[in-house]
Amino acid sequence: MPTKMLQIPTTDGQADAFAAFPDRGERHPGVLMYADGFGIRPVLKEMARELAGHGYYVLVPNFFYRHGPAPVIELPEHIGEEVRPAVFAQLMPLIEAHTTGRVLSDADAYLRFLTTQPEVSAGPVAVTGYCIGGLLAMRTAAAHPGQVAAVAGFHGPVSADGPESLSKLTAQVHLGHAEGDMTPEALGELNQALDAAGVGYTSEIYPGTVHGFTMSDTDAFNPAALQLHWDRLLPLLGRTLANG
């Protein structure tokens, strides 16, 4: 599986990024993958390679590039509960500095870059994200109706922008929520808002999960939920992207 580190030109500089894509000399649909708050690291590269193996060009940008290349902060090999508070104390100022204006400006740059790569086929793209990346994915899809055909967010604060933001979505949506993040009542309210916005979607709580369940380098990891995430994501991409 070919992979490469890239530099994406943005209005504020250069965002470093990881890309994975099939080694078949063909062009493939593009997928923009937003990491969780811990950023690009071995587990994210592994997930990008896994997705690329199904026939996609997967681009994972370092959305904290204004603060330095990934990893922006030093991360332990396993992000256990005993180190998590200290790690988040370093990350929260970066997350707070990543304003909606920055998110949307960067999303323009990421999609422009993705769609002009020689390995990427013409046509719509998909966006997926984890944790804070789920929110970035939803903002990106809402800002690029028509270009983004599918969006997926996992254990992300996807309703943070309120129901009015959903009305701009034209993409097909899948949201996989952690049981520890979302009550059934809150899920019902979110799904009602998606219905009211006329969005085509699936949105569900993954059973027995806590925030971060897809990430194998954390204590939150749930192997069954990670598999469910693939079982939801791959058919969504298959339905919405013209995969060679």
Automatic annotation (TrEMBL):
Keyword Hydrolase: yes
UniProt cross-references to InterPro entries, sorted A to Z: AB_hydrolase_fold, Dienelactn_hydro, Dienelactone_hydrolase-like
Name recorded for this polypeptide: Dienelactone hydrolase family protein
Domain Dienelactone hydrolase: 16-239
Gene3D superfamilies: alpha/beta hydrolase (3.40.50.1820)
MF-aspect GO terms: hydrolase activity
Keywords for the protein's UniProt record, in alphabetical order: Hydrolase
Domain of life: Bacteria
